[in-house]
Amino acid sequence: MGFMALDELRDLLLRHARPDLGTSIDDVLIFKAERPQPPTPTTYGKVLAVVAQGTKRFALGEQLYEYREGQYLVASVDLPVTAHFAKASPGRPGLGVGLTLHPAAIAEVLLQAAPGDLPELDDDAPPALTISTASAELLDAVVRLLRLLDRPSDIAVLAPLVKREILWRLITSDQGAIVRQFGLPDSSLSHVARAVQWIRDHYAQPFSVEDVARLAGMSASAFYRNFRAATAMSPIQFQKQIRLQQARLQLAAAPGDIAAVSRRVGYDSPSQFSREYRRQFGAPPSQDAKLLTPARGRGGSAGISV
């Protein structure tokens, strides 16, 4: 069943892939790469992502990951990563599908589960990003969701039902703890998610861990432990990743304004900015900006990606 579902999933993705990644089903994106891509800064938002063909590699902080056809990724907070399809060609493009995850929808499914259907959760936050092999049931549900693209008149009624089934398959999977914590407003992962959002919104300003822990509703020690467990980074390292990604986006639009960009993203020292930028992207800002200019509008630097 799994191989047949993957074959059909590839056919559906090839048929319905668009340059803008969108589909006529809300929260569903299709990704297609016809050539190997350079590692690109992007955001893995709150998403389920399934690879149907090829291998996707990405770095989160100091950790390297990859997932390939038949595997899926779940990200439960907005994480700054550098990602690319390792191998792709017009004859065998990299293919994937992403479904945005909403805490309220997960909470609604959890409320319908019978007592005892789900094991108890640990208090500590699980990693906010994990990779697993998709079960036959999950692949089948994803295929049925994408089949609706061939029957647009069915989407309004049937897509919400299939999405609910997909959420249930995730909740009861090996990675169910992540998805369940994501749907519970008072879980450790939800507290971390609030802190992540605050750092993303205020990335240019300095902060203390104690202040952000207070905003997240946790003690400083519990917050630091759970933040690092969820994101594989300390809060300060996370902020640096966001600053550097934002700097790269701004340099793509204004390649000659390096000093101003470094100040806007929160760096007081241009030399520190240049040093950390080079360590992150492999070239100093001035050189990288020249490479970025022809690629404006290429996409992949914001939003979700598989």
UniProtKB/TrEMBL annotation:
GO molecular function: DNA-binding transcription factor activity; sequence-specific DNA binding
Sorted UniProt keywords: DNA-binding, Transcription, Transcription regulation
Domain HTH araC/xylS-type: 193-291
SUPFAM superfamilies, sorted: Homeodomain-like
InterPro entries per UniProt: Homeodomain-like_sf, HTH_AraC, HTH_AraC-typ_CS, Tscrpt_reg_HTH_AraC_N
Region (Disordered) location: 282-306
Ranges of biased composition (kind: Gly residues): 297-306
Protein name stated in the entry: AraC-like DNA-binding protein
